[in-house]
């Protein structure tokens, strides 16, 4: 991916338009002149209806175009205009303004044309002249009831108002009948009028008036220009303007002069409207009058028609703009004085200071202003007033009673034309604003003078909010895309602009909406299977996508703007385009080049803050808000990436804001992952790829093309880890928790990517952790939790864990994610790799052999238990054999099967298994087999290895030359044991042979003895034990004394029997149970055998020492006569003096004890005899008589 983007990518784009309205071209390059010379021809009015475009020109021509809809693949969305006819309406003034009005009446398929003050009627759509109507002269035509729907009373025709020179005429036009006059209203010189039911707001050249066309009444409102010297005093009570013989009521037209008296009376009777502009005196209307029984037209209370204060004198230089920014009031000003009350005389006798009076500034010359009337809703009219065309103008709102109903609005200059759009939102409504209500806007074509040249622009402001808010939020329509010569700001052009609201809404498609909201494939590198990706999108799906896009992109508008030979629709800017324009502005920082993406975080956060909590009103707004949240969150993430790329550590609050934006936006997490160098490879795409909104697709592809992310530093201990990995981990964990929810995508590729990326991040973050098990709250604990649960990316997870050398985690992953049939084999194979020495960087497999042994005991697969049990038995026989002898295991083995298996696969564990069976499980039937195993081991070694025989002989010799006191021979060979297997087997053999327990002593002595016979010189201890088992104690003692020289063991043999001699001795305990001790007689007999062997020791000193010690320690077990008979006569008495002394003492003690016992016995006998005598006496004599 190249660092520098292609030139096409770096070309600056036109500035985004985030205003409330945008322009969309309807037609351009119109042939305004029949001869091709259109230099002096301009558009004067435009109307669009039912696919037809009617353009009126200053050349007194109407050009009829047929609008053909654009092709489906035409991104411009502009219709094709085909000229159908060029018509020159009848007129009598060749130098007039041209076509002044085109009034379309759809209900009756008629068109009313006003050309050079000549009125004519035509049939639609081809503009055929009406044969039953003769053109007449008039000033204006219109006044169609705006409250009447297009389908209301379609057979009844339409009532229009024709403005004649001296009066208005209400005319009924129907489709199949000639026009019919209904009423004549005495109001001359009408230039414009807007009607709601019976009420019409009209204007002549000087002022505005509110007319009741049904009851033929009028209320004067305001002068158009406060500088108009002919406007007179405007305002007063309702006047009757019916066409009857009587003095005419005040007409605003100059053609009907009115006596001054009547004007003054009207000024006295109606001053409310004047006060709204600040033009009249204080009114006397102080309270609301009682309602009359029935109201007709503009009936007003008597207080308004009789008790009014006279109007104050007008100043010709007074402009209405001074009070325009505030709501006008009909209340009198504080301190105002009546013009009829004289001023008090000056005080007498005082020097009155002379005040220099400045000459008032001369007002500008009067320039007639064109009146403008619009009706934003059924209850209000909007009127424009001002002073001069270049000075600010004011928009006044009046209700159907002729009263000011809301604050006025201000225009930068007096408007050339105005239109209103939207019914407005009533924020003061008790039930809240209507969900279907639209913001109310006033769109005004204004102008200003710059360097002696007029520049024209379109000013847009709200009319349904507080005037101060409307003034601060005033905006200009962007005209930079019109192709006209514009200023640098793009809001003003040098060409006059015209505006109009057409008769019915026009449907148009904004392709930008579809381009941004429609789902497109995000191109990330090459497609693996392009043919499969192409087949994935079916024709039906393409059609459905197109219909969906058209539905989102379809808008309606009624407002036209024209200049030169071009016409545009003024379209309400959709929410998605407005907000996306703000995002496009935030796409580049002020210090950037305007082409390379460098998001402005502050602007992005402001956009997200502005739409937080905003409720969508329809499907398009719902999708728009989702799109904006997603795009803004992605741009915030791009900002983090770009700053990380330059090694900047980002503040925590900025990371939290970005994380929260990504979570709330719910953009496909694969989009986020595609922007990171390490995690790009974790993105999984199906045949359809990553489907996201087109606007986000364009943004991401452009960002990837402009930035070489592969060169981005990826040190997890640097900005990359601190800025990105931690909050991205939390973001992916949020997505993992969302899996399975109804509102979340069910695309498996999304969660494969999430799991793979989350695992990758945790592995990166855990690299610096200490080896061993995890503690709660650490990255390792999160890793364990992740792999223990279901993970969608099985193959990738295995690859990552292998790559990071986390084998124990891999085994946990297998346990949690494999199929039942594959779970145990994979886990055991992985543990085997760890135990065999393969690196596991986590170091978590502590006491792995025991863990494996426990795991095997829970398996039901016998083949696996055999395989890995034998492997463990080979590795750790003592632990491994427990698997085959565990009664709690799911798989149980018969000992014969286990022995056969171990002999085949783990020969070294057979001994351990047999020992476990014999010693641990007390299975005595395997004693002979265990002993045979020991014998085989030892004898095989002795037969094959002469060094082993020599080693045994050496141990005997070494032990014999040790000087007493010395350890027993068993302790000697145990302490000096070598690690050879046969040596350890011999120790266990001695222990097993010497045991007197039923479980271990039931072996076949004769068979063992026959095998040991050839090695009786080398296996002396074994022969001693076997002789003892055969009651050949004298031979056993002989071998102990003369074969081993183990005198202590020989004494132990006499005291405890043969089974005690090669057992480990525990201090404070007998080597054998007390019940197994030999009898005293048996012990004496054995000691006599031992004495005889001691007396045959070759070494005289040893013989004397051992004999004397034996006799001294165990004198009680010897008969002194037998001892004296055995002792050599040449030995000095000193050798066994201690024994003699002890023996004699024993004899004396025994004699004394026997005397005492005899005396005690005599005493007992005497006592018993005495008791017998006493009892006899008690019983007395018994006489028996003989027969």
Automatic annotation (TrEMBL):
Residues 236-375 are annotated as: Disordered. It is found in: Cytoplasm. GO terms for biological process: protein transport; vesicle-mediated transport. Keywords: Cytoplasm, Protein transport, Transport. Residues 327-337 have a biased composition (Polar residues). One of its GO terms (cellular component) is cytoplasm. Residues 40-464 form the CNH domain. Transmembrane segments: none annotated. InterPro entries: CNH_dom, Vam6/VPS39/TRAP1. PANTHER family: CNH DOMAIN CONTAINING, TRANSFORMING GROWTH FACTOR-BETA RECEPTOR-ASSOCIATED PROTEIN 1. This is CNH domain-containing protein. It comes from Phaeosphaeria nodorum (strain SN15 / ATCC MYA-4574 / FGSC 10173).
């Amino acid at each position: 991916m190249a660092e520098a983007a292609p030139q096409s990518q770096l070309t600056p784009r036109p500035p985004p338009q985030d205003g409330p309205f945008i322009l969309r071209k309807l037609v351009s390059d119109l042939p305004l002149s029949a001869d091709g010379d259109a230099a002096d021809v301009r558009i004067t009015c435009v109307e669009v209806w039912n696919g037809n475009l009617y353009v009126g020109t200053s050349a007194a021509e109407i050009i009829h175009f047929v609008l053909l809809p654009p092709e489906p693949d035409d991104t411009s969305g502009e219709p094709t205009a085909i000229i159908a006819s060029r018509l020159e309406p009848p007129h009598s003034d060749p130098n007039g303004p041209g076509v002044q009005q085109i009034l379309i009446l759809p209900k009756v398929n008629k068109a009313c044309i006003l050309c050079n003050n000549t009125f004519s009627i035509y049939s639609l759509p081809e503009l055929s002249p009406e044969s039953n109507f003769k053109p007449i002269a008039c000033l204006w035509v219109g006044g169609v009831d705006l409250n009447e729907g297009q389908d209301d009373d379609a057979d009844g025709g339409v009532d229009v108002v024709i403005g004649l020179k001296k009066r208005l005429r209400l005319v009924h036009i129907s489709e199949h009948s000639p026009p019919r006059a209904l009423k004549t209203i005495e109001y001359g010189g009408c230039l414009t009028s807007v009607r709601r039911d019976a009420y019409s707001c009209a204007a002549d050249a000087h002022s505005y008036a509110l007319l009741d066309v049904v009851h033929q009444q009028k209320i004067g409102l305001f002068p158009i220009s406060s500088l108009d010297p002919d406007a007179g005093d405007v305002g007063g009570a309702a006047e009757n303007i019916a066409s009857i013989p009587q003095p005419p009521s005040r007409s605003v037209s100059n053609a009907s002069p009115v006596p001054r008296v009547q004007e003054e009376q009207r000024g006295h009777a109606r001053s409310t409207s004047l006060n709204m502009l600040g033009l009249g005196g204080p009114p006397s209307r102080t309270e609301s009058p009682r309602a009359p029984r029935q109201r007709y037209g503009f009936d007003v209370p008597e207080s308004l028609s009789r008790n009014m204060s006279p109007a104050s004198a007008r100043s010709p230089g007074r402009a209405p703009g001074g009070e325009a920014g505030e709501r006008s009031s009909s209340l009198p000003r504080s301190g105002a004085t009546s013009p009829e009350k004289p001023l008090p005389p000056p005080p007498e006798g005082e020097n009155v200071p002379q005040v220099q009076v400045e000459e008032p500034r001369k007002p500008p010359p009067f320039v007639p202003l064109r009146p403008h009337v619009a009706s934003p809703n059924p209850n209000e009219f909007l009127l424009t007033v001002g002073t001069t065309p270049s000075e600010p103008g004011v928009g006044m709102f009046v209700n159907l009673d002729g009263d000011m109903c809301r604050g006025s609005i201000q225009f930068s200059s007096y408007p050339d034309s105005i239109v209103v759009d939207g019914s407005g939102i009533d924020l003061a409504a008790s039930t809240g604003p209507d969900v279907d209500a639209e913001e109310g806007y006033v769109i005004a074509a204004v102008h200003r003078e710059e360097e002696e040249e007029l520049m024209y622009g379109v000013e847009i402001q709200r009319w349904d909010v507080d005037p101060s808010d409307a003034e601060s939020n005033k905006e200009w329509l962007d005209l930079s895309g019109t192709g006209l010569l514009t200023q640098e700001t793009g809001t003003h052009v040098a060409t006059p602009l015209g505006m109009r609201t057409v008769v019915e809404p026009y449907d148009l498609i904004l392709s930008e909406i579809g381009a941004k909201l429609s789902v497109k494939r995000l191109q990330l590198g090459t497609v693996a299977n392009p043919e499969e990706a192409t087949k994935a999108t079916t024709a039906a799906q393409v059609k459905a996508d197109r219909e969906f896009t058209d539905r989102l992109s379809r808008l309606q508008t009624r407002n036209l703007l024209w200049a030169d030979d071009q016409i545009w629709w003024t379209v309400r800017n959709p929410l998605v385009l407005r907000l996306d324009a703000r995002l496009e502005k935030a796409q580049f920082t002020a210090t950037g080049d305007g082409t390379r993406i460098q998001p402005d975080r502050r602007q992005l956060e402001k956009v997200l803050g502005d739409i937080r909590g905003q409720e969508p009103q329809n499907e398009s707004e719902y999708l728009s808000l989702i799109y904006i949240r997603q795009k803004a969150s992605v741009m915030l993430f791009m900002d983090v990436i770009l700053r990380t790329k330059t090694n900047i550590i980002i503040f925590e609050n900025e990371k939290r804001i970005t994380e929260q934006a990504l979570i709330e936006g719910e953009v496909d997490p694969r989009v986020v992952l595609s922007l990171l160098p390490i995690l790009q490879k974790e993105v999984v795409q199906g045949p359809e790829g990553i489907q996201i909104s087109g606007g986000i697709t364009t943004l991401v592809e452009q960002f990837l093309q402009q930035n070489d992310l592969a060169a981005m530093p990826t040190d997890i201990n640097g900005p990359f880890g601190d800025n990105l990995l931690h909050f991205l981990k939390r973001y992916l964990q949020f997505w993992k928790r969302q899996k399975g929810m109804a509102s979340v995508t069910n695309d498996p590729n999304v969660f494969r990517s999430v799991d793979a990326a989350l695992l990758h991040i945790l592995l990166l973050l855990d690299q610096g952790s200490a080896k061993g098990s995890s503690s709660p709250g650490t990255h390792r604990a999160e890793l364990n939790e992740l792999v223990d649960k279901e993970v969608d990316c099985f193959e990738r997870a295995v690859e990552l864990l292998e790559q990071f050398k986390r084998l124990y985690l891999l085994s946990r992953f297998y346990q949690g994610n494999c199929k039942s049939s594959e779970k145990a084999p994979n886990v055991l194979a992985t543990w085997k790799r760890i135990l065999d020495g393969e690196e596991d960087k986590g170091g978590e497999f502590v006491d792995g052999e025991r863990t494996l042994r426990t795991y095997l005991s829970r398996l039901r697969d016998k083949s696996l238990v055999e395989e890995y049990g034998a492997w463990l038995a080979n590795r750790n026989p003592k632990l491994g054999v427990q698997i085959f002898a565990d009664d709690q295991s799911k798989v149980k083995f018969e000992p014969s099967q286990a022995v056969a298996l171990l002999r085949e696969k783990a020969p070294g564990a057979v001994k351990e298994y047999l020992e476990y069976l014999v010693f641990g499980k007390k299975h005595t039937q395997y004693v002979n087999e265990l002993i045979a195993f020991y014998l085989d081991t030892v004898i095989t070694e002795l037969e094959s290895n002469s060094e082993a025989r020599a080693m045994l002989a050496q141990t005997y010799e070494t032990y014999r030359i040790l000087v007493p006191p010395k350890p027993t021979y068993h302790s000697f060979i145990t302490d000096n044991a070598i690690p050879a297997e046969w040596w350890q087997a011999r120790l266990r053999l001695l222990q097993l042979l010497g045991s007197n327990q039923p479980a271990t002593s039931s072996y076949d002595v004769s068979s063992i003895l026959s095998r040991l016979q050839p090695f009786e010189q080398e296996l002396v201890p074994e022969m001693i034990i076997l002789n003892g088992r055969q009651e050949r104690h004298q031979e056993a003692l002989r071998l102990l004394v003369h074969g081993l020289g183990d005198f202590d063991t020989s004494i132990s043999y006499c005291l405890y029997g043969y089974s005690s001699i090669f057992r480990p001795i525990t201090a404070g305990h007998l080597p054998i149970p007390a019940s197994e001790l030999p009898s005293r007689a048996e012990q004496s007999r054995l000691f006599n055998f031992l004495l005889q062997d001691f007396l045959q020791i070759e070494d005289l000193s040893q013989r004397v020492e051992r004999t004397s010690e034996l006799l001294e320690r165990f004198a009680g077990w010897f008969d002194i006569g037998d001892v004296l008979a055995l002792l050599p006569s040449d030995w000095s008495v000193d050798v066994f003096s201690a024994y003699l002394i002890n023996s004699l003492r024993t004899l004396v003690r025994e004699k004394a004890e026997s005397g005492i016992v005899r005396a005690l016995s005599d005493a007992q006998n005497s006592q018993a005899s005495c008791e017998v005598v006493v009892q006899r006496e008690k019983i007395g004599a018994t006489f028996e008589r003989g027969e």
